[in-house]
């Protein structure tokens, strides 16, 4: 049947306004693009990853260090303050103020992150981290402690928004998955370093000051590195900079292989063509364009992965980890920090598995397999806590196996790949605000789960709580199967071309 005049006209308009999209779509299923064929200068590529990844390491370090810092701060023997007698509410605020700051940072990234650019936003994160470290470590009062913790959280919000986008936009397509996933590994390394710092200074007077103060060095490295690295060429084009400026920064990002200016100019031209088409459709509808047409599906993918990452039971499972290991005879209550370190190493190993396979197996298979296994683990924990006596060896060992299965499956799927997808699925014209909304979803749902989880567990019981999480796991699995495409090996422009069919 011939197409209607209206459809034919709209199709022709799209072809004229986006002449390169059809070629990108064709090349994504056929020959590799110039960017994919470009040799990799591993030295500069490593730096393009390493310095932004310090933002994730500092996020993880805060999680690990705070676990020991609060214990140190509240002890009359080790606090070194006159205000160590903190109420449960004050202790909770000291911990959660960082998360509230991260929420505020994500909101700030949504409001003006696109004006700042990836590089300057990471510099702002480094400044927040550094100043907050000094404020917190020197805190002479509880309000100063809260101010430092909140400012540190602002740094987390800015860093976790800008780092995935910067890495995705500046590194070669065929190692993009490896590098963004490895950033999650840096978060886990940060958690481990925080645990180790806690165990080192837990018995020292004022030890909490050292635990927090040690984050100053990576904050300085983050700032110094981002001062030296180039700005994202894709953001430069989006901000209205010339193709010449974008080409110069792209050449720097490719190191010794950026000397072939002709090849780089060709790639920058493709970036510019894609950006112009994407931006023109977004500017017509403003903010509402995020929720329409070609932008809706990637936004749904990013926000749903961030949501499911937080509401599939991770806080509940890890909360009872030490208790499960105690019952199995692996540790006494006094060895809780050792259990945390051991579990942290296991998380790191499983994250490493995802990092090594994400560009060979693909994002979608790892997500589907990992979420399936963590759902099975949640169902097993539910069954154990519902049908078996808590003291029985069968219940104890089943819980240990289910716990390890859950942690391993999570770290090989939701842990790294959710942030990876946030870094690569959004169209360039809306990447900044869309990534900020995804970050807000992550930190907001994290805060809400942490807030209501004790009440839910008290009301429903542990078995029913795990059953609810298993049900959410099934919903997330169905969602991933239906809306998440495979993006392995595609340039950001080729990924953006996938959304044209949603118009």
From TrEMBL:
Protein name as it appears in the record: Major facilitator superfamily (MFS) profile domain-containing protein
GO biological process terms on file: D-glucose transmembrane transport
Segments passing through the bilayer: 47-73, 93-113, 122-145, 151-168, 180-198, 210-229, 341-359, 366-388, 400-422, 465-484
Cited CDD domains: MFS_GLUT10_12_Class3_like
GO MF assignments: transmembrane transporter activity
Family membership noted in the UniProt record: Belongs to the major facilitator superfamily. Sugar transporter (TC 2.A.1.1) family.
Composition skew (Basic and acidic residues), residue ranges: 7-19
One protein family per Pfam: Sugar_tr
An example Gene Ontology CC term for this record: membrane
Family annotation (NCBIfam families): SP
UniProt keyword Transmembrane helix, yes or no: yes
Domain Major facilitator superfamily (MFS) profile: 48-488
Region Disordered, residue ranges: 1-33
Membrane topology value: Multi-pass membrane protein
Principal location class: membrane
Origin organism lineage: Eukaryota, Viridiplantae, Chlorophyta, core chlorophytes, Trebouxiophyceae
Coiled coil (UniProt feature): none
Protein source organism: Apatococcus lobatus
Location of the protein in the cell: Membrane
Keywords, comma-separated and alphabetical: Membrane, Transmembrane, Transmembrane helix, Transport
């Amino acid at each position: 049947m011939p197409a209607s005049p209206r459809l034919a006209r709209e199709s022709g308009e799209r072809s004229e306004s986006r002449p390169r999209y059809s070629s990108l779509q064709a090349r994504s299923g056929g020959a590799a693009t110039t960017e994919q064929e470009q040799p990799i200068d591993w030295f500069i590529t490593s730096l393009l990853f390493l310095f932004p990844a310090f933002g994730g390491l500092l996020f993880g370090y805060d999680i690990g260090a705070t676990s020991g810092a609060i214990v140190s701060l509240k002890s009359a023997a080790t606090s070194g303050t006159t205000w160590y007698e903190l109420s449960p509410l004050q202790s909770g605020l000291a911990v959660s103020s960082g998360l509230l700051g991260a929420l505020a940072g994500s909101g700030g990234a949504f409001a003006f992150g696109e004006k700042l650019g990836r590089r300057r936003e990471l510099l702002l994160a480094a400044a927040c981290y550094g100043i907050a470290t000094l404020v917190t470590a020197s805190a002479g009062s509880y309000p100063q402690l809260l101010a430092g913790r909140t400012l540190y959280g602002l740094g987390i919000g800015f860093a976790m928004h800008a780092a995935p986008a910067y890495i995705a936009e500046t590194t070669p397509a065929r190692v993009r998955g490896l590098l963004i996933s490895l950033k999650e590994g840096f978060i886990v390394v940060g958690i481990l370093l925080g645990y180790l710092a806690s165990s080192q200074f837990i018995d020292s007077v004022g030890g909490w000051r050292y635990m927090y103060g040690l984050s100053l060095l990576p904050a300085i490295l983050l700032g110094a590195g981002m001062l030296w690295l180039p700005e994202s060429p894709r953001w430069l084009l989006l901000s209205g900079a010339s193709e010449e400026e974008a080409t110069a920064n792209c050449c720097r990002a490719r190191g010794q292989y950026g000397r072939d200016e002709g090849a780089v100019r060709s790639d920058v031209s493709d970036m510019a063509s894609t950006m112009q088409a994407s931006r023109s459709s977004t500017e017509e509808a403003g903010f509402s364009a995020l929720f329409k047409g070609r932008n809706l599906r990637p936004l749904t993918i990013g926000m749903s992965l961030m949501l499911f990452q937080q509401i599939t039971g991770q806080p509940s499972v890890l909360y009872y980890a030490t208790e499960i290991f105690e019952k199995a005879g692996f540790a006494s209550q006094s060895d809780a920090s050792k259990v945390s370190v051991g579990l942290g190493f296991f998380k790191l190993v499983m994250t490493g598995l995802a990092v090594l396979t994400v560009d060979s197996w693909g994002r979608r298979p790892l997500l589907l397999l990992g979420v399936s296994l963590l759902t099975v683990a949640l169902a097993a924990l539910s069954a154990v806590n519902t049908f078996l006596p808590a003291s029985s060896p069968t219940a104890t060992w089943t819980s240990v196996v289910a716990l390890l299965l859950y942690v391993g499956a999570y770290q090989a799927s939701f842990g790294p790949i959710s942030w990876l997808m946030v870094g690569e699925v959004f169209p360039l014209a809306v990447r900044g605000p869309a990534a900020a909304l995804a970050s807000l979803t992550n930190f907001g749902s994290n805060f809400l789960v942490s807030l209501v989880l004790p009440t839910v567990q008290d009301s429903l019981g542990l078995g029913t709580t795990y059953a609810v999480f298993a049900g959410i796991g099934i919903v997330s699995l169905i969602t991933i199967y239906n809306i998440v495409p495979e993006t392995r090996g595609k340039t950001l422009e080729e990924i953006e071309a996938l959304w044209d069919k949603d118009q």
